[in-house]
Amino acid sequence: MVQSSLYSALAEAYENPEHTQVSHAFYARLLPILCVLESGSRIVELGCGSGILTELLAKDGFRVAGFDSSPAMLALARRRCRRLSARVTFAQGEFGDDIRAHEAALVVACGDVINHLPARVVVRRAFRLAARCLRPGGRLAFDVLNRWCFENYWRDRTYYFEGAGGELVMRCSWDGTRRIGTARTTGYVRLPKGLRRRHIVDHNERLYEPDEIRRDLRASGFATSRFDAWSPWPDQHLEPSLDRQFWVATRS
């Protein structure tokens, strides 16, 4: 459901400390929800990427079904979670037909997955699929980037990330009229003998306002929803605003 070409091309360079920190912080934010779930409960993860959150959830004893559109990212996830294969499954693409209706206690989408969706009609479809997976009273938890983040961290900004597999350079822009942030991402994947393989990929993320998200959740079968201002970065409180919202919605 996210742009698979980006992550297929850049998967080897994607795992840098800045990206992995988001998954660990999201997991910490989930703990109040996880602590009330029965051991062995089913969790569905949308946009599981390289499986960082998947592994953390499976280590807690949950059965996790991870879905992602990128075969390269799924290969990393399977390698990371190979010792937990009794509790973890992965599949490429959307998750609507692969999980029995009303089976999951929790659906999660970490790392601004919702912002990657190109239009509200696609967001509503994702929410409906999540509702179909969840048993009554089950919950959907996800994070989204807020307007402050796009206006301050995307407008004419360039970022450099380094990881074990290579480096990423992201040149970001923000179109406030269309509410779309664009990142031209150049990945330099490390090869033997000091060589690099370069990939250049553009990807977009869209701002969805809280009222829009709330209406789409309600229309998709969620009885209640709430959000808190949130950030995965420990020093974000030094900025004028937190950069994300953490949402929890409960299925009817």
How would you characterize the overall build of this protein?
- The protein has 252 residues and is an alpha/beta fold.
- It has 2 domains: 4-146 and 207-251, Rossmann fold (3-Layer(aba) Sandwich), CATH 3.40.50; 148-206, N-terminal domain of TfIIb, CATH 2.20.25.
- Helices cover 33% and strands 36% of the residues.
- The chain is built from 8 helices and 11 strands.
- The strands form 2 sheets. It has a 7-stranded mixed β-sheet with strand order 3-2-1-4-5-11-10, sandwiched between helices.
- Helix 3 (52-59) links the parallel strand 1 and strand 2 (63-68).
- The longest helix is centred in the first third of the chain and has 18 residues, at 17-34.
- The two termini are 24 Å apart.
- The model has no long low-confidence stretch (mean pLDDT 90).
Distinctive features:
252 residues, 33% helix, alpha/beta, Rossmann fold, 7-stranded mixed sheet
- Indicate the percent of residues in helices: 25-40%
Give the neighbour order of strands across the main sheet: 3-2-1-4-5-11-10
Q: Which overall shape is indicated by the principal axes computed on the Cα atoms?
A: globular
Bin the strand percentage: 35-45%
Give the topology string: H per helix, E per strand. HHEHEHEEHHEHEEEEHEE
Per CATH, the superfamily of the largest domain is Vaccinia Virus protein VP39
Distance between the termini: 24 Å
Helices and strands in order:
Blueprint lengths: L3 H11 L2 H18 L7 E5 L5 H8 L3 E6 L2 H10 L7 E5 L11 E6 L3 H4 L3 H14 E12 L1 H8 L2 E7 L2 E10 L4 E11 L5 E11 L3 H10 L2 E9 L13 E8 L1
Parallel strand pairs: 1-2, 1-4, 2-3, 4-5
Antiparallel strand pairs: 5-11, 6-7, 7-8, 8-9, 10-11
